[in-house]
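Hi U.,

Before I forget, here's the chain from the pilot set. I'm dumping it here mostly so it's searchable later in email.
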Amino acid sequence: MTDQSQACADACLVVSDVLARVGSKWSIMVVATLGRRPHRFNELKREIEGISQRMLTLTVRGLERDGLIVRTVTPTIPPRVDYALTDLGRSLLEPVSALGDWAIANRAAVERARQTFDADLGQS
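Structure:
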């Protein structure tokens, strides 16, 4: 493998690793929701339709581990836990919004392409 192809392979691994986190359905929804304002855990669960408590827990832990959100515990009874975007997380809002806008604008074209593809498979 040449140095150039190795560098490309290394870059692809980095991109894949980051996209695995920020490209997941639930991560995008959590980041978008926190982009409006900080939320408590149960507020996030109520606002993100269809997410289970376990999936939300795994998602916020992963986002916190990657430095995209910060978890703040206020020592009250019961303890109050708030989640907010970090500067790094806020920097993700623009590309996520752009991708969302692209998906909305091109949904019909993608659906037509799928139907054509599926119809062609049925004729084979």
